[in-house]
Amino acid sequence: MLLRPQSLLLAISITCALLNVNTLPLWDYRFEDAEGLMRVFAFGRFGFGGGSVTLQFWAMNGSIGLLILFSISALLFFKNRIWQERLTALAMISSILSIGFSLFAVFGLTVKLGAGSVSHIPQVGFYLLLLIPFLLGFARSLIRKDEETASAYRRL
User: In this predicted structure, what is the pLDDT of residue 26?
Assistant: First the structure.
């Protein structure tokens, strides 16, 4: 039963989350003084310098990792809809946390770099992160509707 619409939505959300793992940039920083460009990736090499910004990037990476783990688990639990709905809810919570942690990390880095000397622009990876909770919410509503239909057939 992997061809159900909720499984397709879960697969799309997994793909969007995996594209953020060192493939698509989350944020660009343009330095006004040196004409330089710095890109921020999830699970990239950035953020090992120490301090509070590093902790924020570790929290962002951890929440994206949990998002991927919960989404894959929800996709594999297609026979048990109750667990699939719970895992999808956990994935939705971790996706919202990853958005919050990524904003917290990016703006913390902006303060550390100097807000006046750098301009920052969100990139495709961040917009994919914004799309994931909507995909997971729609998948969760389809799972719930599928469970109600299946329980109605069991009663007959």
Answer: 83
